[in-house]
Records
---
Amino acid sequence: MDNVGSNLQAVRNAIAQAARTAQRCAEDVALLAVSKTFPAAAVRAAFHAGQRAFGESYLQEALDKISALRDLPLEWHFIGPIQSNKTRAIAENFSWVHGVDRLKIAERLSAQRPQTLPPLNVCIQVNVSGESSKSGVSPGEVAELAHAVARLPQLRLRGLMAIPAPAEGLAAQRAPFARLRQLLQELNAQGLKLDTLSMGMSQDMEAAILEGATIVRVGTAIFGERNYGEK
């Protein structure tokens, strides 16, 4: 936990530098600290270093951390694949969901979101690289799903999310992010009011920011390498 504060500052500096290169304001790029597989103590350390938004992929692990950290004003984002039997707990405990790629899941999240809570912020996950192993809707199917999700009462469709295939070099990294930005612009031209591009991780954050990312999801550069055997 000793390095979390300095690591966070290094990531913030990298975001600011990429934003300057893109002629954007660093404040327009939010940092989501991906805390999956790391203990509640790591999240608490990041909080004391100024971080408020945290991303989790494993539901039971996340619920344990949410319970252990209820004394802190944290914003929890669910960023993993969503199974139908997990939607109620996600709808009840998270502020954001980044991985919606089926209308059935969106409908369940909307129906199960407590009326006492604000609408659940959601992003549609796009399989922008066309990988068979990746979750996400195809670019050609985004519009139909987006308009259907936008009509659901307890959800607030915020934008799009993608995890492109790894690529070498800045130009190759930028290409799928540029495609996601184009898709967002097309949806807004169709009357949707979307403001979020959730894209970019530790290894391709600069490319994502250059192409308009508004949320970057960074874990390893903050918390260190993951030991998935201990999740």
---
Amino acid sequence: MKASFRVMHSIDREEDSIEAEAIRRAQAGDPEAVGWLYDRYYLPIYRYFRIRIENQEEAEDLTAEVFVRMIEHLPRYRAQGRPFLAWLYTIARNLLMDHYRAQPRVPLPLPADLEREMGTGEEFEQIEARARWECVRRALRALTHDQQEVLLHRFLEGRSVEETARLMGKQPNAIKALQHRALAALRRQMKELGCL
């Protein structure tokens, strides 16, 4: 067990040094390094928006804007002990808050791309799964931003407690407590919505 931990820790350090080199090169204006950062972090940032925004095109636009702002602010970026992805999530969070402020509070239907493909005869399980997913989405929207973020990292992205703590700038024990409260709040919201 200790040997596999050392190997994983070594891999993490190697990835961190590759990332640090890419950031340094991107700050110097290397388009290839900017592309590497974009390729590495596009999907987590897109998922961050997609789980919170109904419209796929809006989620894609906001994701693109994160990377535009990344390029604009990259010369001033300093790691300060937090992962680069945490910095990108901060940019994304600010854009999301601006997006929410500009939107009227009207519930929208579940996006078509998240629905399962329906055949000619809609099966009961598919309809039930769509209804459960819609209920989860509505319940998630009622949680605090930190609660949403911890559930996104832990369950949708499959990150460890330690990775989540680094991304959110918190201690692992705080993440465990936040996750516990988030799951309890999600359960309460789902009961209120009649999903459980």
---
Amino acid sequence: MSVESRLPERDVLDGQRTHWDATFSQKPEMFGVEPSEPALKAAELFKRAGKTNLLELGGGQGRDTLFFAREGFHVTVLDYSQAAIEAITAKVDAAGVADRIIALLHDVREPLPFDNNVFDCCYSHMLFCMAFTALELDSLSQEVRRVLKPGGLNVYTVRRKNDPHYGTGIHRGEDMYEVGGFIVHFFSREKVERLARGFRVLSIDEFEEGGLPRRLFSVTLRKERQ
């Protein structure tokens, strides 16, 4: 089998959960405490659109979660790392936003634990470019669409295929490469457009983050119908 056609190895992808748990436990503020630039922009967009009930996927240690809550959003945040959920929970009371954050342990490869048409908006920073297969990504996108209200907004960021890390490290199938122990799924614009099934694409913007720098897409979608 060629490298290009290599299928993902389930046990390797599943092992990322343990890796993230250990990393979050060892590095309490791995991504810092200030909100990310995508979160700042998403908050502005959601406010202009009158969206207040927010679902965040892959909250990590909570830097964006706490920011959204301080900005007045009601945030339900999911992460599959126990260490991440514990970190967020520990920060909530000190930040004075306990009434605006619900933190839940959940693997988003499984159906989202919510009814249809619950949330005004969804936000995720680099969650979609974790160790998910193309089929899992399509399922997740449709789950996000299901739990959003009609007219709901979905904002997510993913690393692009012209990122410096693309094609380096260990190939883990499809467009996934493991670098420094972390598996990243890299995206083309075409992949973003395919995942937008059932949404209206409002924007696909390119930006850079960090010292490498990481090259990313910021994607804004709107649920158009039931």
---
Amino acid sequence: MAELSDAAHFAGVPDEFQRLWTPHRMVYVGQGQTQPGETDCPFCAAPGRSDEESLIVHRGRTAYALLNLYPYNSGHLLVCPYRHVSLYDEATEAETAEIAAITQQAMRAVRVAANCDGFNIGMNQGAVAGAGIASHLHQHVVPRWAGDANFLPIVARTKALPQLLGEMREAIAAAWPA
């Protein structure tokens, strides 16, 4: 009988926990991710294009909000400073204040446009913390609805998004507080 401390024999032994193994997610946590610099950063390039093309819903003085191209849920926004800075403590006082204000405005607009029940808000600081683009600071504003979690993303590698990104951008931009 294997010792319980022997991890090689413990994995897969039935117990009271249910586990979903998702090895395809290793691409997000594995080594070798290259991070964009200022010349190839999508968050630096977005403000130079039209709002529709970049999915921008609001432009502020030091920061802006745009829809996530790979959303967790419909209406998933990112709030980014215009300046290419990677960590929150490297942002200026003006940038952090506007990121906070835009986040609040985003919540109000998404609540009107999408009738959500709540939000997940947060920043992943650094690639090791899960930031897909760690080289440019951005805050996630993810709308949530009661019962919106399901197994499709894990089991079928499919995300059910009921509204097209362009339609959602129009709805949120129209609902943005003046």
